Amino acid sequence: IYNLNYNQQNVYGKADLTANVYYHHLRTRYDDPDYIDVSNHSDHKMIAYGLDLTQNNPISDLISLTYGYVYRHDNVNSNILGEKDRNTHSGHATVNVGFKDVDFFFSNISIVPAVRYDAPSDFDKVFSPKVSVALSNTSPYAFTIDGNVSKSYRAPTFDDLYWPEDAYTAGNPNLKPEKGTSFEGGYGLVLPWLNKTQIKMNYFYSKLTDQIIWAPRADYKWTPTNVSESQTTGLESYIGTKFLDDKINLEINHTYMDARDKSEGDTKDKLLIYRPYHKLDVNAGAAVDIYSINLNFQYMSKRYADSYNTAYLGDVRLWNANVGVSPTFANIKWMLRLDFNNILDENYRLSDGYPMPGREIRVTVGLNLL
To answer: So what's the pLDDT on residue 73?
Structure first.
């Protein structure tokens, strides 16, 4: 994997330029141990290279433009699949119109229309528009409201289409592009009388056609398929606060999600696999001088492991912690951290048939030259 990045401020006027060039090469060989026949030998080469150009151009105090061009070439050469190529040309443009110090309850108003154009050589060429609006109040409560509505398009990646079949995974060359419509809307609030506690809530909705989902087959090999129609709704919530002159912090993140298959047939209105109703992440930490300690709790409700919702994985509850020290010695800032993951040694799985690690202790040492 090779990457080259370039960033130049004030290329002309206030406009900047960001460029990224990359080259990726992956070769996979696989021999089925159950067969001696050389016809079961797989030699799979995947190459991708491309260019990404983006420019930000604040043309006035009111309007800022962001636009760019992306080119990507994908190639796969396999003794099983033969040779496949794709050239993708993409363009994107965003206009940020920001009104500041408006004589209104929301003193800052931002309206951001955007559009993206994708032209893969092997699939349809599609425009994807998006409009975002953000309203913010500059009072001590810093009340904000924001939302966006968009249309999306995602062509199957070469990994989705042509990943070489081995003991664990297999691509699907018959995949269709994923298309959809989505909406998000939420608010944020600061409580100045409670140590500037932050509260955020965000509602999301999406309706997708031919959603691409990786799932295990009957033989436990993971492969992508299209779900003809799916619908996902949910609510993200966040509370964050600090105590004792910001030495102690507490953050709580919760996501409720209802993701369902809306295709006609036996799986209609069934939950999509591995999409839990609830995810909870609680982080508490303290930092004094060069010392720090953090405690983390993660919860995930049960997830269905098949499209008919007959098999499922149970709830997951994990406790993790770390302690660290960051001294300065010989004009070098050192970092030593001790991580304790899955402290209670829970036996759990995120995917059916694939157990996750038990209790783990990890030591990290780092340094920063001052």
So the answer is: 97
